[in-house]
């Protein structure tokens, strides 16, 4: 009889920061690595240590112990220290598609600098797993993934449930993505600590192994059993080889070995049974009762998610595209600078970091990292855009005009009203005292002439002058000292429709404006109405709105409902108090004011003063201190009420189908949740949402037989959509990653704020800053669309563009080699979303990446860059030996590498 083999893998799951500050975890990592390097020398039977799949641990160690770099290299070369393939262990759902891709790309490159990475997609504690993992891993040459969450190996009482999407009868399974990519999936069914602290004495060892072997065999599909010798921040077990030797003596029917993932995966994948289950797409089923999906981390500390969106958009959609375009002028690309920015950003992407479920000090440090990465991105963008503008020919504009260049760095046609300021006159501090200069410009502003905006042909274009400002600023020349100045700025509003990855040049000059046709109309009768040629918005006296799709004569009533409820949960999980009733803003005093009414823009301010409880009652703090599990808490909301004033600016623009909202409030309340609701009244059982490299279809409601949680929160990126065959609604957002589809009227509920006071999980960790007290501003938009094909896809693209600002650079009249209007990259394909335009990590080839917006349907797409030739590549930017695909299957991710003969 063949013995069963027990593979014991030593590891430590290393959260860089969590229930202690980063440096507290950091110092313990130093101790762990010191112990490991010594143990490798002292115990020749110690096979290896798995360094948690993230190379950043090496950087963190050598930051303090640079003198041991050679020992680290020796350990990796000898196969004692197993590293990679990722840079950090990210949260899949809360970081962008490109951030997920860069984590693998940078992690693999960092790993290969040291040696051979472990070719295992390692997601031990990710809060659910993205559906495109199989395709992304295959694109990186990885054939297997290991994960601790997202799949139920069994149902209640260990009964195998065969009819559920997320069920596998074994800890081993196949995992198939939406594009039919398939990899081997390994579930840590008994968690990644099932072999932790193995006893080295007989009595304890028998008790330990009798239990652990039975648990592993319950789920294993082969005779190869995996024991993970470690857990969160676990010091290495120094006597593990002695404990293994004892186990071999006590259990002669088993062979216990100290091993590694390379050997284990080779063995288990060669011995898989034919009846292995296949799980599909997103793996998000955490527990059968629905409470511990941990999806509410998408709304913990929303300020983190908003700032993460700022930085991701700055790097992905502004800095990299502009730097790629500028290379045509400079023959230089800031590889190292962008790599530094990306690594700094990704240090905020581990699950306990970006999820907002750590102690306050962790998240304070995160904000500093965000700001560092963002400022680097801004520096790159400013340098690149200035280099481009200096090369753009503007000499055709009148000498008395001020040219300016607008860049659309999204991949698709953009229709937007751009609001900006143009410097009209500057007085440097060398010309007088600052107050004198300020007042001189003030006086000159009193006699300003009218202004117009013209194009390169000298033709007046539609624009509005909305005022002027006088401000201090400064220049930092590259060849001399800084130059401070006062300047007079003219505020300009310009509607543009620009192709993707392009620039357009205009100029501001003195002149008499021509009369224009009113494009946005506001009427103020019994109810205020805003409309353009595409959409009409009726604002009722109580602040609720009715949206009408004018092209299809479809109306969506009773939207913009602000809902407030109590929250006695924690950073991980929302829990509404028992018998708590929702409070709605439209039930309170509402004021409506028209604040902008021009030919291009209509804006209405809606002010609502809700009276809500100031916090939960005092019982909550006692229940938290006693570490009551949140479902057992009896605390209710306080009887003391105070005003929460919501100020919402509703905006309609010329030619733009999106209705945009900016809501501001000063949160001084605790233990509550604020959402905005948009009923759709559409008859469908599914909805669609942007996830990682896919527009995923999800059911509106859960299986009531197993789901006990009264809520069903979900993750999103730029939008959620509900549609029938001929019409639908897309709700876009900026850094608001949590939504829910409510059963009544298939209502889209977007979480704007969740205020809680503790970390949660395994103890009591107060987090007063998670109450998010103070000024808050959130942005979102609604678009009504038509049929399921092109029109809906375009609404998805516009939702993504809602997060991408235009870039404007002012210049002068000069001769240049670049045209005043130009498209750098052209994308032909309505069902395709571009996610990257950058240079290859190693070399000067251009890299683009994008994906098919549909999971089921093929889409036709052709990309073109003048003077460049496209080649298929993988996610590691390595060439594939296949022709360029112009027909992309459903959910296909395509990376292209572009070469030039120049």
Major sheet details: 9 strands, antiparallel
| Structural class by helix and strand composition | alpha+beta
The name of the CATH architecture of the largest domain is: Alpha-Beta Barrel
How many separate domains make up the residues? 5
Query: Which blocks of ≥5 consecutive residues have pLDDT under 50?
Result: 154-163
The CATH homology group name of the largest domain:
Glycoside hydrolase 38, N terminal domain
Shape: globular
- Give the C-alpha Rg: 29 Å
What fraction strand?
A: 25-35%
Structure explained in plain terms:
The strands form 10 sheets. A 9-stranded antiparallel sheet has the order 25-26-27-28-37-34-33-30-31, covered by helices on one side. Strands 11, 13, 14, 17, 38 and 39 form a 6-stranded antiparallel sheet that branches. Helix content is 23%, strand content 32%. The protein is built from 15 helices and 47 strands. The protein is globular and about 95 Å long. The model is unreliable at 154-163 (pLDDT under 50). It has 5 domains: 4-286, 7-stranded beta/alpha barrel (Alpha-Beta Barrel); 300-391, Substrate Binding Domain Of Dnak, Chain:A, Domain 2 (Up-down Bundle); 402-512 and 806-810, Immunoglobulin-like; 542-801, Golgi alpha-mannosidase II, domain 4 (Beta-galactosidase, Chain A, domain 5); 825-902, Immunoglobulin-like, CATH 2.60.40. The relative contact order is 0.11. It is α+β, with helices and mostly antiparallel strands and 902 residues long. InterPro entries: Gal_mutarotase_sf_dom, GH38_beta-1, GH38_C, Glyco_hydro/deAcase_b/a-brl, Glyco_hydro_38_C, Glyco_hydro_38_cen, Glyco_hydro_38_cen_sf, Glyco_hydro_38_N. Residues 297-370 form the Glycoside hydrolase family 38 central domain. Keywords: Glycosidase, Hydrolase, Metal-binding.
């Amino acid at each position: 009889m063949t013995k069963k083999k027990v593979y014991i893998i030593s590891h430590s799951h290393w959260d860089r920061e969590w229930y202690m500050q980063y440096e507290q975890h950091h110092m313990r990592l130093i101790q762990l690595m010191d112990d490991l390097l010594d143990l490798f020398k002292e115990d020749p039977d110690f096979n290896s240590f798995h360094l948690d799949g993230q190379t950043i641990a090496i950087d963190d160690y050598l930051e303090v112990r640079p003198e041991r770099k050679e020992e680290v290299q020796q350990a990796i070369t000898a196969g004692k220290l197993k590293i990679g393939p990722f840079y950090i262990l990210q949260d899949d759902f809360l970081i962008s598609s490109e951030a997920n891709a860069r984590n693998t790309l940078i992690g693999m490159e960092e790993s290969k600098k040291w040696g051979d990475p472990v070719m295992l997609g390692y997601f031990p504690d990710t809060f659910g797993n993205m559906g495109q993992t199989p395709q992304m891993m295959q694109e990186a040459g990885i054939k297997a993934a290991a994960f601790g969450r997202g799949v139920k190996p069994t149902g209640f009482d260990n009964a195998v449930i065969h009819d559920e999407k997320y069920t596998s009868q074994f800890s081993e399974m196949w995992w198939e993505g939406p594009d039919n990519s398939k990899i081997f999936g390994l579930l840590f069914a008994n968690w990644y600590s099932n072999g932790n602290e193995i006893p080295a004495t007989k009595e304890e060892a028998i008790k330990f192994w009798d239990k652990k072997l039975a648990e592993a065999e319950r789920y294993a599909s082969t005779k190869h059993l995996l024991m993970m010798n470690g857990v969160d921040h676990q010091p290495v077990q120094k006597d593990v080889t002695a404990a293994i030797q004892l186990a071999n003596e006590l259990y002669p029917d088993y062979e216990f070995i100290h091993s590694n993932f390379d050997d284990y995966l080779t063995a288990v994948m060669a011995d898989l049974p034919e009846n292995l289950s296949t799980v599909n797409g997103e793996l998000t089923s955490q527990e059968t009762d629905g409470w511990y999906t941990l999806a509410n981390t998408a709304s913990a500390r929303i300020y983190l998610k908003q700032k993460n969106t700022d930085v991701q958009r700055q790097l992905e959609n502004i800095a990299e595209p502009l730097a790629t375009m500028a290379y045509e002028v400079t023959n230089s690309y800031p590889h190292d600078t962008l790599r530094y920015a990306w690594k700094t950003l990704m240090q905020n992407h581990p699950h306990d970091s970006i999820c907002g479920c750590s102690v306050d000090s962790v998240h304070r440090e995160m904000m500093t990292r965000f700001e560092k990465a963002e400022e680097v991105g801004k520096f790159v963008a400013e340098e690149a855009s200035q280099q481009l503008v200096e090369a753009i020919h503007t000499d055709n504009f009148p000498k008395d005009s001020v040219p300016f260049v607008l860049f659309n760095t999204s991949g698709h046609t953009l229709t937007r009203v751009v609001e900006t300021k143009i410097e009209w006159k500057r007085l440097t501090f060398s010309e007088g005292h600052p107050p004198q200069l300020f007042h001189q410009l003030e006086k000159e502003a009193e006699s300003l002439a009218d202004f117009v905006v013209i194009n390169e042909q000298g033709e007046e274009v539609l624009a509005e002058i909305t005022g002027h400002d006088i401000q201090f600023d400064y220049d930092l020349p590259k060849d001399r000292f800084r130059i401070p100045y006062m300047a007079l700025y003219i505020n300009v509003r310009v509607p543009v429709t620009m192709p993707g990855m392009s620039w357009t040049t205009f100029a501001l000059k003195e002149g008499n404006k021509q009369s224009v046709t009113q494009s946005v109309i506001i009427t103020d009768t019994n109810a205020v109405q805003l409309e353009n040629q595409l959409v009409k918005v009726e604002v009722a006296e109580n602040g609720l709105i009715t949206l009408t799709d004018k092209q299809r004569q479809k109306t969506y009533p009773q939207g913009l409902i602000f809902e407030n409820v109590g929250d006695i949960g924690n950073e991980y999980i929302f829990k509404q108090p028992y018998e708590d009733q929702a409070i709605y803003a439209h039930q309170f005093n509402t004021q409506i004011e028209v604040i902008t009414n021009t030919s291009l823009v209509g804006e209405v301010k809606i002010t609502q003063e809700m009276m809500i409880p100031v916090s939960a009652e005092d019982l909550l703090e006692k229940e938290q201190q006693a570490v009551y599990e949140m479902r057992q808490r009896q605390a209710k909301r306080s009887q003391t009420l105070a005003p929460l004033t919501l100020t919402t600016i509703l905006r309609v623009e010329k030619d733009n189908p999106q209705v945009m909202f900016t809501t501001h409030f000063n949160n001084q309340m605790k233990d509550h949740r604020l959402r905005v609701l948009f009923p759709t009244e559409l008859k469908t059982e599914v909805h669609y949402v942007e996830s990682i490299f896919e527009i995923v279809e999800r059911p509106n409601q859960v299986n009531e037989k197993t789901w006990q949680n009264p809520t069903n929160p979900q993750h999103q990126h730029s939008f959620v959509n509900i549609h029938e065959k001929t019409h639908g609604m897309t709700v876009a957002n900026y850094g608001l990653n949590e939504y829910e589809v409510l059963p009544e009227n298939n209502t889209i509920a977007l979480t704007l704020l969740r205020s809680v006071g503790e970390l949660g999980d395994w103890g009591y960790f107060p987090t007063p800053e998670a109450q998010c007290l103070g000024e808050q501003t959130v942005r979102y938009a609604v678009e009504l669309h038509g049929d399921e094909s092109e029109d809906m896809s375009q609404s998805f693209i516009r939702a993504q563009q809602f997060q991408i600002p235009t870039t404007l650079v002012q210049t002068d009249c000069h001769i240049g080699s670049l045209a005043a209007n130009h498209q750098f990259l052209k994308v032909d394909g309505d069902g395709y979303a571009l996610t990257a335009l950058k240079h290859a990590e190693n070399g000067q080839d251009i890299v683009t990446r994008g994906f098919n917006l549909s999971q089921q349907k093929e889409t036709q797409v052709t990309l073109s860059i003048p003077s460049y030739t496209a080649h298929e590549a993988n996610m590691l930017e390595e060439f594939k030996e296949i022709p360029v695909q112009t027909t992309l299957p459903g959910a296909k991710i395509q990376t292209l590498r572009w070469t030039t003969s120049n």
